[in-house]
Amino acid sequence: MISLSTLGLFLVVKAARLPVSPSKTLLRFADQVASFGRGTVLDASCGYGRNAVALAARGCTVVAVDNDQGRLAALEQVKTAYIAERASPDVRIGKIFTVCTDLKAERWPFAPSSFSAIVCIHFAMTHLVPCLLSSLQEGGHVYVETFGGQGENFRVLPKAGQLRDLLSRHVEFKYYKERKVGPIEFNSVSVTLFAQKPYEREKEWATRAPGCPQERSERGGAKAVKRLIIAVGSVVKIPLKPARDWPI
Questions:
Q1: Strand order in the sheet with 115-121
Q2: What domains can be seen in the chain, in order of their start residue?
Q3: What is the pLDDT of residues 170-200, one digit of tens each?
Q4: Distances (CA, A) of 180 to 90, 154, 172
């Protein structure tokens, strides 16, 4: 029998157009993401927040980034109730901080080692790989699930082996699957991967995109991110300035 709270929550979610079900493949690895230091997780881009909610229900603090303020406003309406509805009784639930901005390599807003995990689902992020790696803590996890092969998606999907080549020197793959999609001449693939950044404190990344943070930092970076999000509030256009200029 469906409880009144569940029914009411469903109606609110439906009105806000928030998808109910998170990625099934992400859920296979969600406990590993949540177990690493209970740090801050970046969900980029989060859309209506279906995956951010699933991670917050497992105790994660999630910075949910999207360039559509309407989607984030919808998430703000339902996030507290929806997280509580999905959380286990023995889990201290996390929080979601929404940030409306475009993520660009030349104006990457996050400090080095800011996040214990980074989730990119249905987001063209190949050009942001160096920035994502810089902002991922050692020992942290990265989960990527590209678009499928529907319609014209093949035009924005990575090429065969491209994501593996970009990441292989910097992470240890725990799961990797790619499937060819679209016309043969495009050599496009859909990719799902889960990987961990190794503990190598003296390692310098071989490639960096312009504007990515160059300084090394420790776990304090995650606190800096949370402080900034709290300071500016939710669903706002944050200034895209280098992380070293942010107030700490």
A1: 96-100, 61-66, 40-44, 115-121, 136-145, 188-196, 172-181
A2: 23-239 (3.40.50.150)
A3: 999 999 999 999 999 999 999 999 999 998 7
A4: 42, 9, 23
